[in-house]
Amino acid sequence: MSNGGDPLVSVRGLKKHFVQNDGFIDRLLGADETVRAVDGVDFDIHEGETLGLVGESGSGKSTAARALLHLDTPTAGTVTYDGRGLTAMSDSELTEMRKRMQMVFQDPASSLNRRKTVAGILKQPMRIHGLYAGERDERVDELMELVGLSPQHSNRYPHEFSGGQRQRVGIARALAVEPDFLVCDEPVSALDVSIQAQILNLLEDLQDEFDLTMLFIAHDLSVIRHICDRVAVMYLGEIVEVAGTETLFEHPQHPYTRSLLRAIPEPDPDLARDRRALSGQVPSPIDPPSGCSFHTRCPEATEECAATDPPLDAVEGATPGHEAACIYAEEFESGGGVAGEADAEDRYSPENFASAESADATGD
Amino acid sequence: MTDPILEVEDLATRFYTDEGVVEAVDGVSFDLYEGETVGIVGESGSGKSVTAMSIMGLIDSPGRVEEGTIRYRGEDLLERSESGIREIRGGEISMIFQDPMTSLNPVYTVGEQISRVIRQHRDVSQSEARARAVELMGDVGIPEAESRVDNYPHQFSGGMRQRALIAMAISCEPEILIADEPTTALDVTIEAQIFDVLEELQETYGMSVILITHDLGVVAGTAERVNVMYAGRIVERADVDALFENPRHPYTRGLMRSIPRLHGSADRLEPIAGSVPNPAALPSGCSFHPRCPHATELCRGYDPELREVEPGREAACVHARGYGGPDERATGSGEPVAADGGDDDE
What we know:
By secondary structure, chain A is of the alpha/beta class. Chain A is 32% helix and 19% strand. By secondary structure, chain B is an alpha/beta fold.
């Protein structure tokens, strides 16, 4: 994680509201409902860093990313990229900027054009941005190799590839115009378990090689833990906690983060049986609760929580950069997170395959 | 132990597609005892859902259950006629599916749909069925069941829809509940709630549960015994603690290593090389050999059966500890063969 200096991406007061109405009569009667999908978020992403954005469905994480890139115009707030404000830019200026900011989508099957060969898919962004004229075929081969695909297969269509390979194509497309900022929106959640790790490792390698800055969106905290330097936790359109990855997982200070961590089934019978459910459901973003939006589900909530909407503030006495939006954040004993020390994962290693007695003996 | 309530033996279900015959389930055997939860874990194409559909008698053309027996309380369900199966399906053996939106009919209220299942299997009046529906909706944790019984599915959130489906599945107090990825479409906090409900119901009604999932975390917390499937076969079976403590099959070990974890080291992940094979063109010998770090020449030609490697646990790998090598039919040198690299080309 790089510190010091200005951040590459700086988001302030970002809001994205959608107006929902069921048609003419509703509009006539003024029965519009405003969905507050993203309701005022601030964050910075420094060069070379991966910021994770984690939350349940409806938390606004994907909407925040789209608003950041101005794929959807934000309702309010500013986005500064490398010192330049995106919000005031014209369409042509934005197009120019997008060369530097690319996106990898969740579902490689639906985000790739079925009628185009992979070569055609990879050339499209180069054409749009007028890059690599006359040497696009070479660039396609280079990209294929970069993401671990055989260049001979570039004349194939997306359906001829497996899910993991299609996601490799999606990544190659994002890299085609040499961006310095990559937004990955749930890039592995549609993939088989055994393939997820391949794609996560590929993203890490590419980040190292090209010095990429990343915003990594996921609902899966275990995935976030493995790939991100810092993590922002979203709930109902707001960031409720942000911290360095290790700090967040070992010393979560917001009750929502703590509950999320306890709700995750860990692939370990002892830990998984200890899983505890968080009661209730995510409230509607049309009519969010008063005060702290988490108070309706929070095991620690008091009357004051229904009245006070806590800002995202530095947690006193915690690691610098650790912020939480909870009036009691300082009062929770630290800990309550996961154990960070390495354990007996070695027992699954190929070396211990045939002679697993040693692993048996060290069992916990 | 008493006799199992369900015994699946040598089940083979094939699909006759344009691309050839797909052996979706190829010789699967397992038992389910009363009151227990058995997990079936696998990735896409492993045959776990087809196994469930075969038990439910829901395999449609071009698929056919072609071999094996599925004995429920000693009686082979495959011998039953379609109407005979229907008596059991939804009644004594019931199933919940992954996607709660497509499994509910959008034009009927939730209450009507639950009532219909009840009346299909029980001789009760409309109002009795409705009252039972309200009661069941309360049991699965739907708040204000009295009024929500008249809601349509679109008025329910994803988690509430899944609860409604569970209410429907347990409405006739089934002996066996098959849960096929029941929480895959849901958020983790809702998932944990659903498993709490299932666990409670299992205690109340004494059901046996077959839990089908791709998620090793979910089986770890829920199942007592686990079957790991790969390419239409069960490749490993063990009690849940033994399986996670020390998996014997290289595929299970690979899965355990490749999943990102909350606890322990956050170092680089160790993926399984290659990709899940196309079920219409499975590799020769052991289906896992092209991805296996321990594969030898033997594995290319020899297809290992599931065999006991230790009392109470089985694996299908000639190199697994306790397997004792191939049987007499086997040939081959035992020369190591390199597994495919990181490239997941076919």
